[in-house]
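Budget justification note: compute hours in this period were largely spent on complex prediction jobs such as the one shown. Inputs:
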Amino acid sequence: MKTLGFILQKEFRQILRDKTILAMMFAMPIMQLVILPLAANFEVKNVNVAYVDHDHSSYSKELADKIASSGYFKMLGNSSSYGEALEMIEYGTADLVLEIPSGFERNLVREKYQKVNLSVDAINGTKSSLGSVYLMQVIAEFNRNLDVNIKSPNGKTAVPRAKISVKNINWYNPRAEYKYYMVPGILVLLLTLIGGFITALNIVREKEIGTIEQINVTPIQKWQFILGKLIPFWLIGMIVFTLGLLVMYLVYSISPQGGLLILYTFGAVYLIALLGFGLLISTFADTQLQAMFIAFFFMMIFMLMSGFFTSTDSMPDWAIAVSNLTPVTHFIKVVRLIVLKGAEFAQLKRELVYLALFAIALNGFAIWNYRKTT
Amino acid sequence: MKNEVHNSHLSAANSQLSVICKNIVKTYNKGEVKAVNAVSFDVQKGELFGLIGPDGAGKTSIFRILTTLLLADSGTARVEGLDVANDYREIRNMVGYMPGKFSLYQDLTVEENLRFFATVFGTSIEDNYELIKDIYDQIKPFNNRRAGKLSGGMKQKLALCCALIHKPTVLFLDEPTTGVDVVSRKEFWEMLDRLKKQGITIVVSTPYMDEATLCDRIALIQNGSIMSIDTPDNIVKSFPKPLFAAKADNIYTLLQDLRSADEVESCYPFGEYLHLTVKTATSDIDSIKQIAGKDTVNGLEVKRIGPTIEDSFIRLMNEDNVKENTKEKADGK
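Corresponding output:
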C-alpha cells in the first residue's frame, strides 16, 4: 500500500509536469465543449431554392412568398428556365429547384389538378431530404388553403371538409434545440478520449522508453503498477467530467434534470470501463504510434456508432448489435436520459449493469493479457 | 522458509557462488533466432565478472534472464541461491540492474528519480548514502535537472546510483560504458572497483575488449555461445602462437599479400598495424619479413608483440567458424 502511494506520487508529478498534456486534458475539452455544439448543428436552415416560374400568376407568386416566409428557405430570384436553375445546382449555389409550369393557376382552377417539378441536390443527404420534406409540407399547406379549395365557384362558401390538425409538443427539449442533444454527447466523447487514449499512451510510453524494465526489476508488483496508472487518470476523468458539467450549466444553461449523484455514479463506472479499454490497448501496442492508431480506430467506431451523431434506432440490426457492444453507446444514452429527462436510478438499473459488465470484462481481459505478455 | 531448506541442499562450494547459469537457452521468433545457446557460467561472490562480446552476442538476453525480466527456454539460473524463475520476487529485492538503454524517468529530476527508486525498495537516499556517495556527489550539482537533460556520462552515473540505492548484493550492468566518453568510462570502472571492495558482486557486459582486463574473470561470448571463461591474464596467456605486428607504407596491399601467402594462418588489421600469426611455430621476425616480401615493400616494419584480449577473441572466433564450416561440410550442407 505504501508502495502504491509512492507510485501515485510519481505519476502525479509526471502528469503535472507535462504542461502540454495537462492543457490537452483540461483546456481542450472545455474549448471543444464550448465551440462544437454551436457549430455541429443538424437543423436544416438556409436551403437555397431556385424558383423557376413559367406561369407568373398570382398563385405562383403566392406560393413563392409562402416558401420564402417559412423560415427554412432562401429564394434565389427567378430563373428563366429549368436549365439555368440546374446550372445553379451544379455550381452549388442552389440546393433545390422548384419548377412551376405555365398554366399553373389556370389548371388548378379548371382541372383542380396540377403537377410541379421538384429537383433536389442529394450530395448533402440530410439537407436534401429534410429540405425536400419541408418544401413539400409548405406546398401541401399552400394547396389546402387555396381559394379554389375553400370557395365554391358561385361565391358561396363550401362546407369545410373535416380536418385532422396535428400539433407537436417537444418533450424534454421544448424548443427542439439541437444543443440539448449535442452537449451531453460531446461531454461523453471527451471523457472517452481522456479515459481511453491518454491512459493507453501513458502506459505504452513506459514500454517505449524502457522505464518499465527498470520498474520490473524492483519489488513493485503488477497490480500496484496498474493501479498506479489507473487511479490518476480516473481522478482526472472525474475532474474533466465535473468541468464539463459546469460548462454545460454556465454556457448552455443546461442543468441535469436528474440527480448529480446518479450521474456521477455512472460516470465513475464508465471511466473504470474506459480505463480498462486503455489498459487493454497498451498490452497490445509496443509503441505510442501503434497505441494511437488502435485507439483512433475504436474512437471512430465509438463516435459514429454510439448514437452520438445518428440515432441508433435507425441503424440496421447488425449495427445496433455492434453499437450495443460499445460502452460509449450506453453512457451517452444514460447521460441524455439523466440530464434531459431526469431519469431515476430505477429506470437505469439495466444500463448500470451493462456498464459494470464492460468495466469487469475490459479490465479483466487487459489484466489477463498483461500477465501473458510479461 | 522454503528457500532456506532449499539452500541447505547446495554444496559448500556453491555457497561461494553468487550467480550460477546452467545450459541456458533462449530463442526468439519461435525458435528461429537462437540468442543464447547453452550458456553456463558461475560468478563468485564479490567478483567482478565480465561478459565480453560484440553486439548481438546475446549479452542482454543473459542479463534479462538473470534479472528475472525474461524466462529462459531451458536451463537453470540461480542468483544468490534463488531460482530466477520461481523466486523472482526475492531476487528483485537483492539485485541492482542497469539496462543498456537509459531507462529512468526523463521527465523527473535527478533527485526525484533517485528518491522514487529508493522508496519503492522501502529505503531512502539517506539510509544508503554511503554506498552511492562517491558517484552521487558528481551529479548532485544537477539535482534539480531533469534526467533527460543530463549528458551521457551523467545519465550513466545516475542510473548506477538508482541501481545501487537499495544496497544490492549483486549488480548487473548491461553495457554501462557504451556511448560514454573515454574519461567517463575510466571513471566508471574506477567506481566499479570501489563497489567491488564493498563486497558487491558485479556482472558487467561490454563490447570494448580493452575493458576486459579490468574484470576479475571474463567470458568471451559470440553468437550466443561462450567461447572461453577465465581471468583476462590466462586468456591472453593461452594464446597458442607467437603474434606479430606488421606495417608498411601501403598497408592495404600488405594485408592482401599476407592473406594470400600460404604460410600465414591469420592476418587482420589492428590499429595502425596488421596482426598476424603463421602456421609454423616460428618466432623469427626475419622469416615474417620474408613472407611479406621485404625487398619490394616500402617502409616494412615487423615486430613481435604480446596478444591482447581482442587477439584472443578474434582467434577463438575464427576457430569457431572453422569448426562450424567443417561441421557443415560433414553434414553435407
